[in-house]
Amino acid sequence: MSFSLYLEDWRGWLPEETVATSKPSWRIPAQLGKGLPAMLRRRLDDTGRATCDILRELDPEANSPLVHASRHGDAADTLTMLENLQRGDPISPARFSMSVHNAILGVHSISRSHHRPLQALGACGDEFDAILYEAYGYLIEGHPAVVGVFSEGPLPPTYEGYTEHPGTACVVGMRLTLHQGRPLTATKPAHRARPTPVTVMNWLDGDTAYLDGRHRWQLGQE
């Protein structure tokens, strides 16, 4: 499958201690979740708050379909609940409700009164391609823009060495269209790769000429 999209805008987030440059132009402010009501902000970790901030910046009118992908989701809370079950302890309903894959989109939609389509994805390492496939589907149905966000939270030490992970919490978001922005073109990749939000940010920032996933993605000029 080969198709083209346009990247109209993008934002990224990394924890303070992992940012090599002081103020990358794409990086959202460090004060995370400022636009969220306090009751909702308390329910999210830094990754969730950064995701909501990026969604807010890229969809300020709350009128675009949103696609959020994460390979591991909230692995820390999920592991804690599994350990509770093993000990025979009860599981917190609030913790469970925030561990599901669409929890962050749910919080964002409540805070912004967002009533457009929402989609949460997990794709075993193919999350970046999955976001673009789903965005393309919404765009050809007539939506003028789609916002796709790719995030990973911190990985608990128990899982280290058993799964691929970028090594840090990270979020990248893209505002995609069919006609406006920088052309984003897919061709067959030289080799199969599994992009993370960090590799996507490096590519969007111009550090690499292309990004390999299921396809080789190349970004042109406006």
Architecture overview:
- This protein has helices spanning 38-41, 46-58, 75-87, 93-99, 103-112, 127-140, 197-204, and strands at 4-13, 66-69, 118-121, 146-152, 170-177, 182-187, 210-212, 216-219.
- It has seven helices and eight strands.
- Helix 3 crosses helix 4 (93-99).
- It has an eight-stranded mixed beta sheet, with helices on both faces.
- It is α+β, with helices and mostly antiparallel strands.
- The mean pLDDT is 89.
Keywords:
alpha+beta; eight-stranded mixed β-sheet; 222 residues
Sum this structure up briefly.
The protein is of the alpha+beta class and 222 residues long. 31% of the residues lie in helices and 21% in strands. Strand 7 and strand 8 form a beta hairpin.
| Largest sheet, spatial ordering of strands | 3-2-4-5-1-6-8-7
Helix content: 25-40%
Low-confidence stretches: none
What is the strand content?
A: 15-25%
State the shape.
globular
On the 0-100 scale, what is the average pLDDT? Answer: 89
The major beta sheet can be summarized as: 8 strands, mixed
Structural class: alpha+beta
Number of helices: 7
**Terminal Cα separation, in Å?**
24 Å
Topology as a string of helices (H) and strands (E): EHHEHHHEHEEEHEE
Radius of gyration: 17 Å
Beta-strand segment tally: 8
